[in-house]
Amino acid sequence: MGRMTEKYESSNVVGGRRSRDEEHESRSGSDNMDAASGDDIEVSDRPPRKKRYHRHTPQQIQELESLFKECPHPDEKQRLELSKRLCLETRQVKFWFQNRRTQMKTQLERHENSILRQENDKLRAENMSIRDAMRNPMCTNCGGPALIGDVSLEEQHLRIENARLKDELDRVCALAGKFLGRPIPAMGPNSGLELGVGINGFGALAAVVPNDYAAPLPIMSPSKSTINNSNPMERSMYLELALAAMDELVKIAQTNEPLWVRGMEGGRQVLNREEYSRSFTPCIGMKPKGFAAEASRETGVVIINSLALVETLMDSSKWAEMFPSIVARATTTDVISNGMGGTRNGALQLMHAELQVLSPLVPVREVNFLRFCKQHAEGVWAVVDVSIVAIREPSAAYPSCRRLPSGCVVQDMPNGCCKVTWVEHGEYDENEVHEVYRPMINAGMGFGSQRWIATLQRQCECLAILMSSSSPSRDHTAAAITAGGRRSMLKLAQRMTNNFCAGVCASTLHKWNKLRAENVDEDVRVMTRKSVDDPGEPPGVVLSAATSVWLPVSPQKLFHFLRNEHLRSEWDILSNGGPMQEMAHIAKGQDHGNCVSLLRASAINSNQSNMLILQETCTDASGSLVVYAPVDIPAMHVVMNGGDSAYVALLPSGFAVVPDSPGTDGGSLLTVAFQILVNSLPTAKLTVESVETVNNLISCTVQKIKAALQCES
What we know:
ten-stranded antiparallel sheet, eight-stranded antiparallel sheet, 17 helices, 23% strand, globular
C-alpha cells in the first residue's frame, strides 16, 4: 500500500506539471519547448530535464497555420515533411498542432458557454415575470381579482398573454402608422396575431403591415437576440425616437436656404439656428447649460454602392475599420431589429462609440446612440444616429456630448458609385477642449461631416485599389514584390496606421495608463501599457507620448515636408543624418500623398543595416497623416512575397496635420506621437529616465521641424 501511494502521488505531480506546461504552450502559441511532451513523460526517479523554449519565425508560423487550416490532424509523414521544410524537429511540429487544436477547442467552448449563459438569464427573467403575474389572477367572468384556485394555471397564462398582446397591438399599430405614413387599424380576434408575436417586441408588425409593403420586421432567432437587453416599453420608445430622428435627418439633408446658409470663412454651410428651432422639435430635449453646438453638412461622390455602404455603417466592426482615425472604438450593445426581407431596411440597434480627433488636447467623445436604417426608394437609403440619454437615464447627469440626429442619405448612381449627403449635428462641453483646438472644433472641422466624407472617399478609393488585380501606374519598387506582396504590404500599413491612431488618444481600445511626471511638458500626454501575447507587437512595456502644437505653416506645406524622404534627416534621428532611399512605393489613390513606402537609411554600422522603415501617408480635405515604424528586413521579405503580415511586430510613430481654421490662409495644428518599447519584459517597472527620454525626443523633434520650416519658437 505504501508503494502504491507513493506511485500515485508521483504520477499526480508529473500530471500537474504536464498540465501547467501544456497550458503555457497553448498560451504562447509561437513558443515550443525542446523537451518531451506530456504524452511522452514517464514516471521515473530521474529529475525532470530543464525545458528550453524556442520562438518560431513569422514564416514558420505562417506555414503551420496554412497546413492547420487544411488538415488539423496531420499524420506522421506530413509532420516529418513539414519539419524538414521549416527546419524544426518533428516533435516541435507535433506539439504545435496539439496546442493549436486545444486553443481552438477552448475558444469554441467559451463561445458556447457565453451563449448558454445569456439564454439562461433570459429564461430566468421570463420565469420571474410569469410568477409576478400569477400573484394577481383575474376572474374569468368579471375580469376582477380572483383566487388562484378559481382560475386554472393554463387559463391564467392565456389571459396574461392576451392582455400583453392587446397592449402591444395598440402600440405597434400606432408605430406602424408612423412608419408607413398612414393609419393602421387594429385587427380583430381572428387576425392571426399570435403568428406574428416575436421575442423582440416587433413581431406584431407581421399582422398589421399591409401586403403591399416589403415585409414584416423579422423575428430574431435566439442566437441573435442574446444581446437584446431592453424591455418592450423601452424598445417602443426607441422606435419612436428613431422615426423622429430619421424624419429630421432627411429634411436637414435635403433643405437648403434658409435652413443652411453660406458662412463667411471658406464658404462652408452653416446651420441657421433660428430656422432650425422653428422647424424642428428637439428629439432629446433642450441643450444642457454650458454646452456648445456644432452642425455641418457635406455632399460627395464615393466609389461604393449604397448596399455595401449601408452594410458597413450597420456593422460596428466594419464601421470602425472604415473610419479608423475618427472611430476609436465601436460596439453594438443591443439589436432591436435586424431589418426586413433579409435587408437592412428597418434595422434598429443600440450602439456605443468613442469618437476622436488625433490630438491629446481634445478629449475622446463617448456616446450611446441609436442607429436606424431605412430605405426610402430604390437605391436610396438613409442611416441616422441619435443619443438615447433622455430615454435610458432621464434623471442622470448629462454626458460630455450629445449626438443630435446625424447620419447620411445615400443614393446610387449609374456608374456604380453613390452620392452621399452627410450631416453631423451635436452638442458638447466646450470647457473640456483645449483653447488651441476650440475654433477648429466649433467650426465642425474636428467631428464634422467634411471629415467623415473625406475619410470615406479616401478609404473607398484605397479599397478599390486593394481589390483590383492590376497595379497603379505610379507604383514603382527597387525590390522584388509580388501582387500578393503588394496586398500584404497594404494590410500591414493599415494595421500600423490603426495602431497609431489608437495610441494618440486615451481610448479604451488599448488599456493605456496615464502617467504624471514632473519633468514632462504640460501639453505632453504620456501613457503606458503592457504588450503580451500579441504577434503584431514586440512583447514588453510600451510607452506612448503625444503632444500638439500650432505652426504658422499651411497644412499642405507641412505635410509634404514630413513625407519627403530626402528631407527626413532634418527631423528624424533614425535617418542617421542622411537622406533615405525609397525601396518600394505603392499608390493608394489618385493623390500622390496617399501611398505606402518602404524606406532604407544609409547605414553607419552593421547593426543598422538590418532595419527598414515602413511609412504610410494619407491626405484629404480634412487633414493628413504620416505614420511610420521600423521593421525587420527578414519579416518584410516574407510580406513582399505575399506572406501573412499579421505576425510582423511593429510600434508606430508619426504625425497628424489639420488646418487650424476653415479659411485657406491659416496655420496648422501638428500632433507628434511616438510609441516606444522601453523594456522587453511585460512585468518590468517604468523608470523616470525612460519617460524623460521620450519627452526629450518629442521636444527635440518639434524644435527641429520648427527650425527647418523657419518657424518662430
